Amino acid sequence: MLLTLYGLGTTVGAGIYVLVGKVAGRAGEFAPVSFLLAAALAGLTALSYAELSSRFPKSAGEAVYVSQGLGRASLAILVGFLVIGTGVVSAATLSQGFSGYFGTLVAVPGWLSMAGVVLILTGFAAWGIAQSVIAASLLTVFEVVGLVMVIWAGRGIVTDPGAIAAAMTPPIDDALAWTGILTGSYLAFFAFIGFEDMVNVAEEVEGEPRPIPAARGIARRGVTVVYLCFSVIGVTAVPVAELAASPAPLVAIYERLTGAPGTLLKLIGSFAVINGALIQIIMASRVVYGMASQGWLPAGLACVNGTTRTPLVATGLVGMGVLVLAFSVRLELLAETTTLFIFGVFALCNAALFRLKWTAGQDIEKDTEIVRVPIAVPALGAVFSALFFVLTLLDLIERAGG
Question: 49 vs 81, 173, 196, 214, 296, CA distance in Å?
Fold first, then answer.
């Protein structure tokens, strides 16, 4: 149960509370289609991760998968650094998102709120995995309450699901609409980052590894349904330009729907973003630890404190990286950079599983504890992840140049 809430916490806080407005800014009224496209791509890789995590329940999971599947230490090290980069950049993104929500509650400089939250969360991650996961799980409950409040407030909007679905289905020949949907999906995909984080605490989960795939599947399906409902309500209730410009899009939607002040949601939104950032810092520090344990990084980064039982040096290094990025790169570019990294990781992990299954045969192993997926799943996952990696990279270059 805690593991499911852990996975939900990083996805819910990251996706809806911070970036739903930015997705709408790119895709307009077709934002729900961007979320559907992102969900489909995430679903392929989630299935591959289900098998990989049952085969290799280790910290630094993705690096281990690539090492075992592709047999190239250099690729495994590359994946490890990409995963660390994903966690650091994602936490920096969420730290900026926190300053947006917190700034609507308390008039403090954005730099001060960002610095304060990163330092506090880094300290919390260093305290202990059990305490961190319990805290993240409790915060997830508040996140879900906030989303339920908004969806309940917007229940009257969806009076005719067929008409809304028709209005939000872009014409096949509308190239401009599909371009917006595609670029919106790069940001929407950020909202699904989190299901893969669970593999990096696999060594710290008591019992058999099988709860990892089950918890991931529950978290991903639940988040997809919530995102679709929320994005439909959001783009229907609030003008796209207003939603895209809001530093606290959840609050903007709630206030437009109810006419009441969204003070409680401002508080919940701050907690939601804190939750996602905490989980990303935990994940990245565990990957640093795992890579050091494999001999791919200096051994000092694998040192575990005797009292907290956490890798203090690795956690502190991750926290410093988050601070630097939070102060130097704007939110939208941070989110899309995170997506770029994760597409690269997903392409290599899917390729690793494909090679494992191709060389061993689809059902040659007799281990009943291994979750199995058809070989077409990692094949499609690798192709589409690689394609989206290239498209996202081109979009990032264009936006950075602009």
Answer: 18, 35, 7, 11, 22
Which residue, 13, 223, 287, 311, is CA-closest to 138?
13
Query: pLDDT tens, 204-222?
Result: 444 444 444 544 555 556 6
- Per-residue pLDDT of 344-376, as tens digits, reads 999 999 999 999 988 875 444 555 567 788 999
Tokens for 124, please give them.
């919390």
Domains annotated for the chain, with CATH where assigned, are 2-401 (1.20.1740.10)
pTM of this prediction? 0.81
Both structure tokens of 254: 């709630």
Torsion sign over Cα 40, 199, 337, 94:
positive
Which of these, 144, 187, 124, lies nearest to 330 by C-alpha position? 187
State which H helix or E strand residue 398 sits in.
helix 376-401
pLDDT tens digits, 329-344: 888 888 889 899 989 9
